[in-house]
């Protein structure tokens, strides 16, 4: 018995040695692997474009494999930080345009400026995305695609209320919504336009529509919160009016993801959402024929309301040993053909010369972006804006007072060393 | 003369050498354990202390080189009024959770003694199932039940005419959201207390209980003067363990309230640490806060461990 145990142990040791050497040799032959981190959006929405980029890359780089790993928005930065600590970063990473600044300021990404011409349409990249990839005058990312915010609505309910054309101004839209709400009174908890009060992308669109802003940098380089400025307060006050008129019950302390606006839509408890154009993805069982989209109207008649321009950039971490190959893959992935295909799928392509006429692209005609401060991400993770919105939407503080508090908090966070 | 001296020195040396060898055997036997502990516990703590004395943010992570700044991280944290607010909130939160867990758990154990065998079996199975449920799954269940739009809690409360809870948001105020977190934590912690206290209850001498009964003592008196003293050592261990668990609870408050709703007005020590350290990529400050937490928890449990030892000696 004891001998058998010993023999087993010996076999186990021998096996582990074999496995260890095998894995070591496997690593050697895998030296030609390019690791790419993309968001799941690509996996769900355009896996064919990823495959096209991979085969184009492999035909110009024989012997190379591409390992595409799909990540989630809410956790990929923590995972990325861990790979930086372990010196095991991917060669290419998709970054949200609001996440770029902190990493560019920390010198985490390779300078792509000298290679700019090797990317298709780089002369006409979308200004917003290009700005999010630029820090201190240097280019650290390649624009991938963008998305604006549009109104997704129930065509049947609006028709029933007598509205056949999209509204041309904010006040017209609001009165339409109120009428639709009255007609749907029998649906318990019906909100003509469902929006979580803490969904700051919506509230701040009103601020920018009235010429306001979030924060600006003064002559000494210090950040100053500007939510309590006259124009910002006008926008916020208008938002509160709109919010109060279109919500069935206070959703003031709910944010944009709990519940998801499209879930409320799919349950038939709202006639409209304001959000990314892809919200149409998830409105079943509401039939596609009853779902339409239009551009959120401004308070100025005939203009669109400025929407938050969300988007992604592709960057090359400085720890990568295959930076030239990483750049080549990015060039293949953001080729004119791929970007045109992205446009067909309802996204905004990365260059102005590729722009089409979709509702998403028309909405992007007026857009806004977060302040490009090194510590902006801390304002978001600290949920400063959500707290601020809940304070005045629930009536705990006046718009002006809440904005003053928020300005202080924002300035304190942005001016940290 | 010279050789004799050398010989005495040599023999003395030989004797002491053998003695030392004999005495050091137990220490040599301890070496493997010490080695393992140093590797899995000592090194991380050493690294944490080192990190807490450095400015270590994203730029330093990229350069893989922190800058020593002495006790600046600790100074900044201790001068931050938010730290003291959070500490107070966490202490109150821990006291409420531990108190409820121990009281309800003990009541559950007393109930378990009195019910019939098959009911006891059923209850025990239920308790073990609760104990076995991973916190993340439990959070999901709680989220569904307390969901403002479709939650069964709002539906039942409205149907029972307790009030109008249609689309009531349980996470609107700090108090209300922590009531939810507390219910989840206490629910998950009770089984361990019930089963442990139930086992301890079998140690209560039956003769003593009967004698007290014959002397005319009421139920409360019997519990207080006969049962409780026997349970005391177990209750103290459970209390100190619960303090350690609840003071550092992260999964339940972070996930149930939601990453998107963590603000300075509802941080606990664990979520505050997460925001300062990982959310802001300020790993030095994060390390300083976690060391402070370590000291606080150690301080809180020392009181209990000492009392526990004393109770142990008396018994």
Task: Give a concise summary.
Chain A is of the alpha/beta class. Helices cover 43% and strands 14% of the residues of chain A. In chain A, 46% of the residues are buried.
Task: Please give a structural write-up.
The complex is a heterodimer of chains A (417) and B (315). In chain A, α3 (47-60) crosses α12 and α9 (200-209) crosses α10. Chain A has helices at residues 2-29, 40-45, 47-60, 76-85, 100-105, 127-132, 155-160, 170-183, 200-209, 230-246, 261-266, 323-333, 336-344, 359-363, 376-381, 384-393, 399-414; strands at residues 33-39, 65-71, 92-96, 134-135, 138-139, 142-147, 149-154, 215-217, 223-225, 272-276, 291-294, 307-308, 310-315, 367-368. Chain A is built from 17 helices and 14 strands. Chain B is mainly α and 315 residues long. Chain B is 79% helix and 1% strand. Chain B has 13 helices and two strands. Chain B has a two-stranded antiparallel ribbon with strand order 1-2. Residues 1-11 of chain B have low confidence and may be disordered.
Tally of DSSP helical segments of chain A: 17
Proportion of residues in helical segments of chain A: 40-55%
Number of strand segments of chain A: 14
Mean pLDDT of chain A: 88
The share of residues in helices of chain B is over 70%
């Amino acid at each position: 018995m004891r001998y058998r145990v010993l023999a087993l142990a010996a076999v186990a040791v021998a096996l582990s040695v074999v496995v260890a050497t095998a894995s070591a040799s496997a690593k050697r032959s895998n030296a030609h692997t390019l690791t790419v981190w993309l968001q799941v959006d690509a996996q769900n929405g355009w896996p064919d474009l990823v495959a096209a980029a991979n085969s184009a890359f492999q035909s110009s780089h024989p012997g190379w494999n591409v390992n595409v790993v799909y990540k989630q928005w809410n956790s990929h930065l923590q995972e990325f930080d861990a790979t930086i600590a372990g010196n095991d970063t991917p060669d290419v990473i998709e970054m949200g345009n609001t996440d770029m600044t902190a990493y560019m300021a920390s010198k985490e990404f390779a300078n792509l400026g000298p290679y700019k011409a090797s990317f298709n349409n780089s002369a006409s990249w979308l200004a917003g995305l290009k700005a999010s990839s630029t820090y201190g005058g240097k280019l650290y990312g390649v624009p991938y695609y963008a998305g604006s915010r549009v109104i997704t609505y129930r065509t049947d309910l609006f028709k029933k209320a007598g509205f056949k054309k999209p509204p041309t101004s904010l006040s017209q839209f609001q009165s339409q919504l109120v009428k639709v709400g009255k007609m749907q009174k029998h649906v318990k908890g019906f909100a003509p336009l469902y929006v979580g009060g803490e969904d700051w992308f919506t509230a701040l669109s009103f601020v920018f529509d009235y010429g306001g802003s979030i924060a600006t940098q003064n002559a000494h380089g210090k950040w100053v919160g500007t939510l309590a400025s006259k124009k910002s307060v006008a926008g916020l006050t208008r938002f509160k009016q709109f919010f109060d008129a279109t919500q069935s019950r206070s959703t003031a302390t709910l944010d944009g993801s709990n519940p998801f606006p499209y879930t409320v839509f799919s349950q038939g408890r709202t006639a409209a959402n304001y959000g990314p154009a892809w919200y149409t993805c998830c409105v079943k069982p509401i039939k596609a024929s009853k779902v339409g989209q239009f551009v959120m109207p401004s308070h100025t008649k005939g203009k669109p309301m400025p929407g938050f321009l969300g988007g992604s950039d592709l960057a090359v971490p400085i720890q990568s040993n295959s930076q030239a190959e990483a750049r080549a893959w990015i060039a293949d992935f953001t080729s004119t053909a791929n970007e045109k295909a992205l446009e067909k799928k309802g996204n905004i392509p990365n260059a102005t010369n590729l722009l089409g006429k979709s509702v998403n692209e028309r909405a992007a005609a007026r857009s806004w972006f977060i302040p490009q401060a090194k510590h902006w991400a801390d304002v978001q993770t600290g949920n400063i804006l959500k707290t601020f919105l809940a304070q005045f939407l629930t009536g705990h503080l006046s718009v002006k007072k809440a904005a003053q508090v928020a300005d202080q908090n924002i300035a304190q966070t942005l001016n940290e060393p | 003369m010279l050789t004799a001296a050398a010989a005495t020195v040599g023999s003395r040396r030989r004797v002491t050498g053998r003695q030392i060898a004999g005495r050091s055997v137990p220490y040599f036997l301890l070496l493997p354990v010490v080695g393992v502990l140093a590797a899995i516990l000592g090194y991380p703590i050493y690294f944490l202390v080192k990190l807490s004395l450095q400015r270590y943010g994203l730029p330093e992570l990229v350069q893989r080189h922190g800058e020593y700044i002495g006790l600046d991280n600790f100074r900044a944290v201790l001068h931050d009024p938010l730290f003291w607010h959070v500490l107070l909130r966490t202490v109150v939160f821990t006291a409420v959770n531990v108190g409820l867990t121990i009281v309800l758990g003990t009541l559950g154990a007393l109930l378990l003694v009195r019910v019939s065998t098959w009911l006891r079996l059923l209850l025990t199975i239920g308790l073990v199932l609760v104990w076995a449920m991973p916190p993340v799954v439990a959070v999901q269940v709680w989220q569904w039940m307390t969901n403002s739009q479709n939650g069964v809690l709002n539906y039942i409360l409205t149907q029972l005419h307790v009030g109008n809870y249609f689309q009531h948001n349980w996470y609107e105020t700090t108090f209300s959201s922590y009531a939810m977190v507390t219910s989840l934590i206490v629910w998950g912690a009770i089984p361990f207390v019930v089963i442990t206290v139930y086992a301890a209850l079998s140690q209560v001498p039956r003769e003593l209980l009967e004698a007290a009964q014959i002397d005319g003592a009421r139920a409360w008196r019997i519990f207080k003067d006969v049962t409780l003293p026997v349970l005391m050592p177990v209750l103290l261990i459970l209390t100190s363990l619960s303090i350690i668990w609840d003071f550092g609870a992260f999964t339940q408050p972070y996930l149930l309230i939601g990453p998107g709703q963590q603000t300075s007005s509802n941080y606990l020590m664990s979520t505050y640490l997460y925001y300062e350290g990982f959310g802001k990529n300020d790993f030095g400050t994060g390390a300083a806060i976690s060391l402070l937490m370590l000291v606080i928890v150690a301080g809180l449990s020392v009181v209990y461990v000492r009392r526990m030892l004393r109770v142990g000696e008396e018994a």
